[in-house]
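Q: Predict the bound structure with zinc ion.
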Amino acid sequence: MTSPRRHPDRAGVFERDEHACRRCGATDDAADLRVHPVGTAVPERDDVDHAGDDVAVHESALVTVCASCLATLRAGPDASGPRSIADDELFSSIRATTQRQGAAISDVASLATVATALPGALESAADGSSTAGDGDEAADAVAAFVDARREVALALEGVDARLARLEGAEPEVSDGDESGGGDEEVDVGPHLAAFLETATALQADLRAVVELTETVANGVGLCHGCGEAFESSSADRCSVCGLERVGPAWPRDAGGADADGRHGTFESLCTTINARLTGTADRTEELTERTTALAEGLVARGAFA
Ligand SMILES: [Zn+2]
Ligand SMILES: [Zn+2]
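A: Predicted complex:
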């Protein structure tokens, strides 16, 4: 008897992602496309081969990435301990990190928009008030949420990988090098630590918004990973992809006469999501200040002379 191991349809994942790396956009054969599981809540299964790309994870948690991006995502901190980083490399790495995190913020804002439209789309499809093909509208709304959430997971993971590398980086100690243009002795270490602290806090802010959007999906009875309906309102795990429920199903009156509980929950969730997004804007401002301080420190000691 053959193994019951479930092989995801890799070709299906490639097809869905239009045969392009979802991180850098590489499409050619040389990009060596793979499938990669994203999302912190991807269920651990004994039959998952984390070393390869032939993983038994539901396709909703798999993304197409090229070999180069996969290596970056999996790199993690240097096992050998802190590594010295040259000023120009530090600067370009900081810039790339803030750009990626900026993109992640946009992705999270899009996810929030899609998630808060979900209950309405499902409701108008259910009561037939929408004009277009009702089933299609609901299915499109669910698919948009699932896709947006997967994009966010990949974006956040990419930023995590960059931050982990920077955590293990040790800026060179300025030695008053006379050949350089800078003559100030500036220790950029504290600036880097401050930058990392804010960037890490921002990651947590963004993940909190993501979890709120997942609560919305669960509230209307859908799995936040694959978008399939939970088997029952009391099910704590998706029977299709295996994800655990993060929020309760909202009370739903059979006759639809008393939906107050559901609407009240949803409206307060929307308020919280918007407040959280506003909070990320404040954090971004702080991050910009800290990035500037770091860059100025590097310039003062002649990094770009
Ligand atoms: Zn790539
Ligand atoms: Zn699921």
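A: The longest strand covers residues 34-37.
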